[in-house]
Amino acid sequence: MKSFKYILLFLAFFVIAVIISFSFFKIKNNKDVVVFSPIAETTTQKTSSFSLENAPTESLKGKITTMEGEINWQGRIATEPAKLSSPVAIQQGEKLITGEKSNLSLVFPDACLVEFSEKTEVDVIQTLPANIVFSQISGTGEYIKMGSYPVSIRIVNLLVEEDGDMVVFIDPEEPIVTLTIKSGKAIVAYNDSDFISREVALVDGQTFIFNYDTRIGDLK
Fold it and tell me: Using H for helix, E for strand and C for coil, what is the string for the chain?
């Protein structure tokens, strides 16, 4: 009787061993199995270069050279603008707003100079050398290209690449944007009311007036 129990016990262990061996072999040879590794996960997180607080290391930083009146600045991690009491370095992903009877000069060395008049709001979208991009929301901004880096400005439904000295004015009362080329040239791109892409070349002394409600542009 005891011998029979030993035989049953032996067979039970044998079956368990076979099942474990088969499962291990199947997992080992299954290429679709994903193995979680806490070490690998930690390493991946540590080597990530993204930073919400800081812009990419290769991006250019702007310098406020003059500021008068009320200037508001919104940093990359801020949820709303705050009053700026002294100049700070400006990086991509930030916003600048001038109040009434206020003005600001922002320079990116060897790249461009931006002059903000009163009641002007501009987002610094990107300052990578491959393409410097601003987004003007309101007011008057003058963009002066000083280097070889491409400089682009988004204004409502317009995208402008400028090469020289250009003034952008957004009418506070009417749906009108006015671009004035003081020197150099610019290319303006937009979609008309039929969503057909249009492109207009501007040269020294020309003015482009755009109604962003009707999506009609007039070159003068």
Answer: CHHHHHHHHHHHHHHHHHHHHHHHHHHHHCCCCCCCCHHHHHHHHHHCCCCCCCCCCCCCCEEEEEEECCEEEECCCCCCCEECCCCCEECCCEEEEECCCCEEEEEECCCEEEEECCCCEEEEEEEECCEEEEEEEEEEEEEEECCCCCEEEEECCEEEEEEEEEEEEECCCCCEEEEEEEEEEEEEEEECCCCCEEEEEEECCCEEEEECCCCEEEEC
